[in-house]
Amino acid sequence: MKKFLLIAAMACAISASAQKFSKPTATHRFPVKAVAVAKQNQANPRKAAGKLADNQMLFGYSGDEAQFFMQIPLGAGEQNVCIGFEGDQLKKYVGCKIVGIRFALNEVSTITSSSVWLSYDPSIENNYIQKANVVGLVDFWNIQNFDTPYTITGNEEEFYVGMTYTSTSSNAYNLITVTGNDPYSFLLKDEGNWYNYSNAGYGELPIQLILEGNLPERDLSLSQFSTDRRYYKTENDKLSFYALVNNVGTKAQKGFAIDGYIDGQKSFSLKSEDEIGGESLELRYEVALNDYQLAVGMHELMLCVAEEGGLAPLPENTVDDTVRTAFNVYSGANTMKRDKFILEYITCNQEYSDSLASVIISNVAAMRPDIIPVAIHVDYSDEYPDELSTTPGLYYAYYLTNLTPPSVVFNRYWVPGADDLYFSMSGITNSNMVSSYCDYVSESIPAFCSVNITPSYDAANKKLKLSVSGMRTGDFSTLFGNGALTVLLTEDHVKAYQAGYYADNYSFEHNGVLRKAVSEIWGDALLWNGLRFNRDYTVDIEDGWNLDNMKAVAFITRPIEDDLSMELFDINNATAVSLKDIAVDAISNIQSDNVNDGKVYDMSGRQVNGQLKAGVYLQNGKKFIVK
Predict the structure, then answer these.
(1) Residue 504 pLDDT
(2) Which of 49, 69, 88, 580 pairs as cysteine with 178 (C-beta 3.0–4.6 A)?
(3) pLDDT for the residue numbered 16
(4) What pLDDT score was predicted for residue 354?
(5) What pLDDT does 591 receive?
């Protein structure tokens, strides 16, 4: 593929102009809104358009089998997006013609013009093999034929298939992406440059080729491959997986066979006598792991098409016959108690629906003491900034969710009913639903380490010291390497503006507000002394923070490499401590001339003036209680 500009994780700093939900800026962050579509038998993607001739088919990511699609607002003006194809992806269609393009857009009432095109290199202006203007757009799927078809040569050609449209609205969700594991790129043009969004959490663009000619009669493909979770016990546990079998040939097939491989060794074979023609078929299966004596660690599960209608697959059709995924196994006895969950809530006080979602988050936290809410504030736009937004929070929101607020991340771990790690709060109706997801995560991945925080406070210098320690099991290093430690500070009962809170917009109470990333935002390396670690941090308490309402939060993940693969974001264990009423003997470095000065101090070492409220205080080095 041509080397388009790639936004590498953490490679560019987030500036103030990047803290907005409108047209992508240098960091190319834009929000998406996920809409769930139930998994079920779906229409054959070859016939999905409904207007294809018998000698025509669709090629590319169809989205008809997708569990989710997402709507993305790119802003007003001209927008350019495309996908790329390499020669080996099309070699089974040598001699066939590309006669047109099928593509999906949304809210087309805001689009004034659109076109589709083929290009060898879209970075060269007006470098089109074919281009056609589109008339009569409709929401979602559209078909546009070319005046002159393009014949596939099979000479390792590579080209790009794209669409250009002009929108009049900065808020319209025109662009649609769909989730899946098809190997097609996602490229977006901004300020004259093309950026590659492949594997960036946005999904795939629903842009397809319409092929015509001598199409293969027999051709099954596999898609939508996933396991029900990523961690399994080595004994008495079953690996459950799901896949979709698609017939992309021109004739129905009577029966098929799928071979399964674990770590490259053929382990099982699945046979079906069902006829697969006009619809795709779901494939669900369970593998007893104790039959394979797998070692603790990461393993690969691979499926491939073995038979189509009783015959071996044609070699030239096998490019999409194989799917892979990874899973972990652990010793059932070698685990620890899970202490807490991290519930990260992407929010913006300029978004009215956040006030409703905040109620759900608060109800969950009240109902489940094992949940630690962390409210990550982001700016809505330059004109409407969220004063509680922080730079670390912007990084978290960008790499963890890519969702418009409000949205939720559970333990930085995949949850059912969500794409990858997150889902929109628009799909949440009550706190019990959130709690059930936490139960699912608890059952899906056990803890292999512990983490504890011991705080102390230097009131004279307003410095907080956090001593973080923990232990690991024997399986930890195999599954998580040395691990990484992330430490955050949050604050409750912060009164600030909130759109949609009509009692008094400025009296809304924000809880769990992320104030500071004490560690590196993706965690600090852990240095182990045998099975134990200890790491100390010192942080300045800023003016305007109320220590009595603050918590120190710590959790352990894998070490995150430069690519920041979302697959590595699992939180293995977490904890939090309140910074209210830090023990008297933990208050250090108070100047001696202040200890016996007769003045009254609170338990954080701050001088208190005026009438005392109920609580515990210090005077002349001694505690006393006001009831």
Answers:
(1) 75
(2) 69
(3) 23
(4) 85
(5) 44
Model pLDDT, residue 166:
95
Q: Alpha carbon of 342 to those of 409, 487, 553: distances in Å? A: 8, 12, 9
Which one-letter amino acid corresponds to residue 591?
Q
C-alpha span between 355 and 358 (Å, rounded): 5
- For residue 613, report the phi and psi dihedrals to the nearest 5 degrees: -85, 170
Beta carbons of 243 and 224 less than 8 angstroms apart: yes
Contact at 8 Å (CB) between 555 and 1?
A: no
Do strands 5-6 and 193-196 pair parallel, antiparallel, or not at all (unpaired)? parallel
**Going by C-beta distance under 8 Å and a sequence separation of 6 or more, which residues neighbour residue 366?**
none
Overall size of the chain counted in residues:
627
H helix runs in 321-452, sequence order? 353-367, 391-400, 431-444
* CA–CA dist 21, 129 (Å, integer): 34
Say how many C-beta atoms besides its own lie within 10 A of residue 508's C-beta.
19
Contacts of residue 190, Cβ cutoff 8 Å, sequence gap at least 6: 23, 24, 28
* Pick from 131, 228, 139: nearest CA to 444: 228
The tokens describing 307, both together, are 């038979």
**How far, in Å, CA of 14 to CA of 23, rounded?**
15
Task: For strands 322-330 and 615-619, give the pairing.
Answer: unpaired
Angle at 448 between CA 445 and CA 451, to 5 degrees: 110
> Rounded distance, CA 212 to CA 52, Å?
9
* Amino acid at site 62: S
CB atoms within 10 A of CB 464: 24
**Which residues does 68 contact at the CB level (< 8 Å), separation at least 6?**
34, 35, 36, 37, 178, 179, 203, 419
Segment holding 486, helix H or strand E = strand 484-491
Q: How far apart are CA 239 and CA 144, in angstroms?
A: 44
pLDDT, tens digit, for every residue of 184-194? 678 888 878 88
Q: Show the tokens assigned to 276.
A: 């697969």
What is the 3-class SS of 304-353, one letter each residue?
EEEEECCECCCHHHHHHCEEEEEEEEECCCCCECCCCEEEEEEECCCCCH
Q: Which two tokens stand for residue 441?
A: 């995560």
Element (H, E) at 245: strand 238-247
Does pTM top 0.90 for this prediction? no
Q: How many CB atoms lie within 10 A of CB 151?
A: 12
- The residue type of 172 is A
Query: Cβ(469)–Cβ(454) under 8 Å?
Result: yes
Decide: 619 and 600 in contact? Cβ < 8 Å.
Answer: yes
The number of angstroms, rounded, from the C-alpha of 524 to the middle of its chain's C-alpha atoms is: 22
Q: How far apart are CA 399 and CA 561, in angstroms?
A: 13
Name the packing angle between helices 353-367 and 431-444 (round to 10°): 60
Determine how β-strand 140-151 pairs with β-strand 238-247.
Answer: unpaired
Q: Whole-angstrom Cα distance, residue 582 to residue 596? A: 20
Quick one: tokens of 465?
Answer: 């010291």
**CA-CA distance, 429 to 36, in Å (whole number)?**
14
- Give the separation between CA 485 and CA 474, rounded to whole angstroms: 18
Q: At a CB cut-off of 8 Å and minimum separation 6, what does 28 contact?
A: 7, 188, 190, 195, 197
Question: What radius of gyration, in Å, describes the C-alpha atoms of the chain?
Answer: 28
